[in-house]
């Protein structure tokens, strides 16, 4: 930290021991996808760490969208979409790619194409986004059954357990048919963990042995590629298909690229249409996607660096309220826990989002830090292109303020 920042921190900590005054009203943040009321006012600085989906397109991206050449994409006549799809396929090292409105739809399309008959089965991690956060669409809409394997701390799963879940001897009137294995990279619930290349290679060998396809929910696979220092194609060579979000850390306002073989994408076009994902003059959005893939990947390391800085800052807070394993902070997501069970993750997030007058006096402004209670009694914070190094330092100072305030209140209660 700079000397100026340290001076601010000293003032902030000194004032933590004074009785707080009136609190600006903030709705509690209690649900993973909740939308808390944002405090407004010139004295309040908001640091939004809820997700990397909250990014807004910059000036260059907006200009490209305004000037995009367009056509009817359902007829295959939108030149900007066609350019984007070709660019993405080359980057993925795959034969073809398809622009899809959302990651959830993209994953569902992959399941529908790989599992061609109702009653087919896919094998997924029990903490995967597909299994937890996509409303069971594979069963609800595609008629595909899910078998789960235990997700390990690094986002992988045990391959022997995977093999034990594969149905053998098809056709059998009692069992569904195993068709597909799904992996997630980086792994959201496990805190942005990067799947090791060795795991993906072994997984593909298992899939080939038993005639199964491998689909990667690669919503943040570009973060994984940057963390590993490799091209995306090095990761994706072990997969039959991949879904890559443009609307997270890459900063596009909407869109996901689905990649695979030419036959896979031809079938995916039909599935997209059935799901209502066929759009017309789509080039306006595809122009943003082109900038996302061409210009925004290199800057992801900045997000990773700020995330590590925040994790280190939590560990240096006094009193030591926060518990975080820095070895698990690999990309732009950090999960941490509170050492004091008297403060719940929801209450912590509420305090981080609140601003009182003592804080404003100490910092010269209020700092509203938005984040979510997360899986397993933890708190999740996510970095993205709209969060600067200065924002990160302010978030650390606010976490220090909350720790000191909690200690003071605990002493008084005792």
Structure summarized in a few sentences:
Keywords: Pyridoxal phosphate. This protein is of the alpha/beta class and 414 residues long.
Secondary structure blueprint with pairings:
Layout: H1 3-15, E1 23-24, E2 44-48, H2 59-66, H3 79-92, E3 96-100, H4 103-114, E4 120-125, H5 129-132, H6 137-140, E5 145-149, H7 159-165, E6 177-184, H8 197-210, E7 213-217, H9 221-228, H10 232-236, E8 241-245, E9 256-260, H11 262-274, H12 283-295, H13 300-315, E10 322-323, E11 333-338, H14 345-353, E12 355-356, H15 357-363, E13 366-370, E14 372-374, E15 378-382, H16 389-413
Parallel strand pairs: 2-13, 4-5, 4-6, 6-7, 7-8
Antiparallel strand pairs: 1-12, 3-9, 8-9, 10-11, 11-15, 14-15
Cofactor: pyridoxal 5'-phosphate
Protein name: Low-specificity L-threonine aldolase 2
Family: Belongs to the threonine aldolase family.
Walk me through the structure.
- This protein is of the alpha/beta class.
- The protein contains 16 helices and 15 strands.
- It is 42% helix and 17% strand.
- The strands form 4 sheets. A 7-stranded mixed beta sheet has the order 3-9-8-7-6-4-5, with helices on both faces. Strands 10-11-15-14 form a 4-stranded antiparallel beta sheet. A two-stranded antiparallel ribbon has the order 1-12.
- The longest helix has 25 residues, at 389-413.
- Mean pLDDT is 90; it is low at 1-8 and 10-40.
